[in-house]
Amino acid sequence: MSENGxxxxxxxxxxxxxxxxxxxxxxxxxxxxxxxxxxxxxxxARRPKLWVHAVDGVSFRLARGEMMALVGESGCxxxxxxxTILGMVKPMGGSIRLNGTDLVKLGxxxxxPLRRTLQMIYQDPYEALDPRFRVRESVEEPMLVHGIGDSxxxxxxxxxxxxxxxxxxxxxxxxxxxxxxxSGGQRQRVAIAAALVLxxxxxxxxxxxxxxxxxxxxxxxxxxxxxxxxxxxxxxMITHDLSTAARFADxxxxxxxGRIVEQGPARDVVRNPQHPYTKALLSVVPKRDPRERxxxxxxxxxxxxxxxxxxxxxxxxxxxVAVERCRLExxxxxxxxxxxxxxxxxxxxxx
Length: 351
Prior knowledge:
This protein is α/β, with parallel strands linked by helices.
């Protein structure tokens, strides 16, 4: 088969013309490292290269119509995972399969037509929008890049439909406004509309409500929840808020130092946490009933240097229940004894 034939086959697969039992997104043993810059002295001394292990063996699946939350502390590798899936960062190893097509093996020319199926919603909606562009230009620009719409009138029609789908109605009222003329929630909805106008299969939402007022967060999250329930779209939501993940996500994956340490159905992970790190995160979530008191579990020390990942369990330097075995053995995700469903896994030697 020719190169063009291979590209066409890969494009067709990623655009959703695959078998129905193939997951929308399948990430397997993904590794993304950043090389630490060496100074002149280090280079002359021929000191070995150092690498930041941002993502170090992450694996998960995401089905159509499903929302999965990737949670953890800042710096654990959540955003790098999303950027690697999107193709903004090249992985050192592993595979990223979209509708059965391994994106890692594709060249830039083959990836270009597939990028419309992968769209990202960024944390800061004001930074995501060009302050010189009106709303119509921000939403129509992705269509111009991917050659969608035969005329300006058709692109405006598609932009209006995307804005109304994103919750800005009547949409024509907003078309000629600049970002500074919109509220934070409205700006984020414009950014969502710019992603929806391409008809993506997968949305990567990186802290989509952390920069918004509390009063508008629920509206944006409910919008994302409705979008994935209304079609075959899947959503990977990155957040540090476990309460938000428990409310809107189907499944939760907890990351620590570049690796998933616990994953499973959202209700099971929140109500029956197995990993000590997950328990610590949940202990500081405010309770709905103010009369319900619980002592927060404050982790001691700082997150280890991702350049020098600790031997054995990478959480053992901060773990309150670590034993000598934890310093020697690196645990893998498995079904813990206290789990109530086979889909619940934790990487801990003591469970």
